[in-house]
Amino acid sequence: MSETKGTPMSETYQFDLAVIGAGPGGYVCALKAAQRGLKVLCVDRRETPGGTCLNVGCIPSKALLHSSERLHEASTEFEALGIEGVTPKLNLTRMMERKSRVVADTVKGIGYLFRKNAVTFRVGEAALTGPHALTVGGEVITAASIVIATGSAPVSLPDVAFDEKQIVSSTGALALDAVPGRLAVIGAGVIGLELGSVWKRLGSEVTVVEYGDHVAPGFDRGLGKQFQRSLEKLGLKFHLSSKVTGIEKRADSVSLTVQPVGKEETRTIEADVVLIAIGRRAYTDGLNLSAVGIETDRAGRIPVDQSFRTSCPGIYAIGDVIAGPMLAHKAEEEGLALAEQLAGRVGHVPYDAIPSVIYTQPEFAMVGKTEEQLKSEGVAYRTGSFPFMASARARAIGATEGGVKVLTDEKTDRVLGVHILGACAGELIAEATLAMTFRASAEDIALACHAHPTLSEALKEASLGAFDRPLHL
């Protein structure tokens, strides 16, 4: 089907749309707006588009996760599969080179799409000078609409600076030139657990310190306990309900003072490298928001309305700089919806069906509400669960850890949340996300024919359990 071209918003300005930030939210917004016929500029401070996700986040981390998982599989599982005579050896330099090639090929793809869709890409620091104007490298550029999509930056502990050598953010943890003998990870969320598992498989002794009393905050607590056991089986050590009260950096090591929450005694953890993965903040540095009357909230985010409009007419914001989960795909959906709106069409983001995934092994994925949330909101719900141990495909591929949990409205059977711990959970969650987007019931999922034998049958069985009972349990 050929693309229907829109009409430019105005001939008063150099561009119909200027997007500040070429991350997942920004580049998607720019591409779709250009496809709708708008004259689009996209500005980014990096020479390569793609933002944190493609350059120093999602993509390189998944490359290292894949490589380290294959090394671990060959080292520990091949003999049980009847594969003998394999003695794998780590070549970190080649592994990092492959990671860099994956990143380079991916960002080149975004550049190609910009050229294909006539998006003008400029490298430089952008600053707002008015509702329809910004500067890039000293040059004033005007646009009928401006979108802020500058993403987020890692947060450190008070008075602790990242040197990306001994005290690292996710960026530094993806580029270490040697396997640290001892790696301390502060934070048991997505980034800490993914990168902690990478370096554990490559040979590090990994210790994770988490302020909360469980790993994977925001994910299902029940499956989270199984998840922690899987990570401990890999070799990660956990100090939960603990806080780091001091970090002493030495010439060749780092010493952490750790205190259990609510207690006075402390312990010391010695490490060669410390990864601080306690969260990210909205990145609005240098945008000159005050020049256009935009104020940030207490968390440093830009307030917007349901149409992503800021307090300054003509300026919009999407992605990590506004409220909501800091996820690349959430930013993409917002960029897509906003571009459609700016082109005179309808754009919508289904915020109650935004999936989240931790790409460890096993993977941990979720969409919708957790049991804890439903209980706190007083929602009457039903639960259906199915373990991968009872899945024929999971047994065949040696991936029996974890299972699927489906949460539904007690009266209507509408799916309210789905939680998956196991192999390929990040792929399996897509079916649940689609079901929730179209407000499906557990019965709808269960009545759909699922190929056999597949891991997806576990979702069918858990859905059966939510309104009736599983067949194979």
How would you summarize what this structure contains?
31% of the residues lie in helices and 24% in strands. By secondary structure, it is an alpha/beta fold.
Structure, described:
Helices cover 31% and strands 24% of the residues. The protein has 473 residues and is an alpha/beta fold. Strands 1, 2, 3, 4, 5, 6 and 17 form a 7-stranded mixed β-sheet that branches. A 5-stranded parallel β-sheet has the order 8-15-9-10-11. Strand 5 (133-136) and strand 6 (139-148) form a beta hairpin. The longest helix has 25 residues, at 92-116.
Instruction: Give the proportion of residues in helices.
Output: 25-40%
Number of contiguous helices: 13
What would you call the shape?
A: globular
Q: Please state roughly what percent of the residues sit in beta strands, choosing from under 5%, 5-15%, 15-25%, 25-35%, 35-45% or over 45%.
A: 15-25%
- What integer is the average pLDDT? 96
Largest sheet: 7 strands, mixed
**How widely separated are the two ends?**
46 Å
Unreliable residue runs: 1-7
The Cα radius of gyration reads 24 Å
Structural class comes to alpha/beta
- How many individual β-strands? 22
Q: What is the oligomer described by this structure?
A: single chain
